[in-house]
Amino acid sequence: MKKLSFVLVAAFVTLTAVAQNSPKPAEKGVTYGAGTENKDVITIANMEEQVQSAGKFSGKITGKVTEVCQEKGCWMKVDKGNGETIMVKFKDYAFFMPKNLAGQTVVLEGEATVKEVSVKQQKHYAEDAGKSKDEINKIKEAKKEVQFVAKGVLVL
């Protein structure tokens, strides 16, 4: 009987921990991380101009989510408005996004800088996104890109 009680308690604790780390559904008005508001928001293009001139950006941007990590929701890509995307990660790996967020518009609050992304890291992201082996094998060179580290996300 003690073993059964122990197993039940252990299962409850495990399920509770998993539920607390699972993101809320991707619904309008839901916030993630530290949260944010739809105020004082600029375009991704304006943010990139600031990163190029000042080396970094701190503030809020908005855009449409095109892709979310299908492993954990630990990163996402947001459309720049020109067919290209920007990589978004989450501050201190403290929260995750719902895997079904693609297609929704979000407000992101955080910081952006230019980062070099190694071939290994690019392949890792491609695997997380569920890309084919052929697509992954085409990645051959490191690249520099603007990356945004969000401390809060609001679904619009």
From TrEMBL:
Residues 1-19 form the signal peptide. Keywords: Signal. This is DUF4920 domain-containing protein. It comes from the Bacteria. The lineage of its organism: Bacteria, Pseudomonadati, Bacteroidota, Chitinophagia, Chitinophagales.
